Amino acid sequence: MTDHAWTARRSVFILEDDLEVARIIRTILEEFGFYTESYARSADLYAALKQRLPDLCIIDLMLPDADGMDVVRTLADRHDFGMLILTCRSYLEDRVLGLELGADDYVLKPFDPRELVARVRSILRRCSPALRQGRAEAKCARFAGWSFHAGDNRLSGPQGRHWVLSTAEARLLQIFLDHPRRILAREQLCGARDLSPFDRSVDVRVSRLRRKLEVDPERPRIIKTVYGAGYLLAAEVEWDVSASAAPPAEPDAAPEDQ
Asked: Model pTM?
């Protein structure tokens, strides 16, 4: 399948109040076959989402009617599509917070058109319908005393601990569970072949998982760091495709609070 044939089936919504920037983003993506719609206000985006959902949403953080971080938090809580923050806010704290709230990637303005397209494609591959269908089958993975229900992102563990993972956390854990006891490079974990050495998005998500899984996140025993190489899930994994979903438990914290 050609790139255009693959992207022609993907829709991208753009939340950007600078009309010229929005026009540039739409032009770039449409040249690669994406279907796009743009909105200048968060209220307009929310109204559009009641009619149809995109495969991915690109969000500026500086908006006239809302804080972009609040928009990211709301979308991560309500929907299961990819999110990319595109902003001029370059503070590390903003980048970490955006990823913590559920964004899949964070790109700074001014941006290179080829990098933007590459990052959009990378997110969409990780959020592909095939992966969504796999989660819908509600398989249960058991590892190191924990149970992960892929159908609804529930994680249950020792001492009655329960979490509902964010979409980004669940995707990362799924990759680890599909490749136990194998060293996975950061590029493999985020799906980007040209990941910058300074891109810490994967490390942020690993840290979030460790805070849930590990007795002592500073001395992890389940997700280990292999210095200079990547990360490794140091546990055997058993998948139970027929496992029935356990009754929902009260999570220790909501996904967006993590």
From this structure: 0.59
